[in-house]
Design goal:
Transthyretin/HIU_hydrolase_d; 42% strand; 6% helix; EC 3.5.2.17; four-stranded antiparallel sheet; mainly beta
């Protein structure tokens, strides 16, 4: 098992992996917000590797920002303006930086779900 932060996205409205979803990773510390990385999901709806690992993976508060509105627009889904869900932020704490934090997102144009996966 790897150590760090990973993610994947599933489009439950189509029952398929969500290909091409941009995910941004931020670290939040003392009121400051630092963008650490941005990546895009592959054909399996997964990122090509950990968003954060090694010495950069420290205890603290992080946020993944999923750009789901762009994904659905790219699939030809007609969304209202503004879209009900355009960007989905998931803020979570890392208490043990020797563990794996997998943060998946299940999406549809009108809802989402997340959990700490394995």
């Amino acid at each position: 098992m790897s150590v760090g932060i990973t993610s994947h996205v599933l489009d439950v409205s189509n029952g398929r992996p969500a290909v091409g979803v941009r995910i941004d990773l931020f670290r939040l510390e003392g009121g400051a917000v630092e963008m650490l990385r941005s990546d895009v999901t592959n054909t399996d709806g997964r990122l090509p590797g950990p968003m954060l690992s090694g010495d950069d993976f420290t205890k603290g508060t992080y946020e993944l920002l999923f750009h789901v509105g762009d994904y659905f627009r790219g699939k030809g889904v007609e969304l209202p303006e503004p879209a009900f869900l355009d960007q989905v932020p998931i803020r979570f704490g890392v208490a043990d930086n020797t563990s794996h934090y997998h943060v998946p997102l299940l999406i549809a144009p009108w809802g989402y779900n997340t959990y700490r996966g394995s």
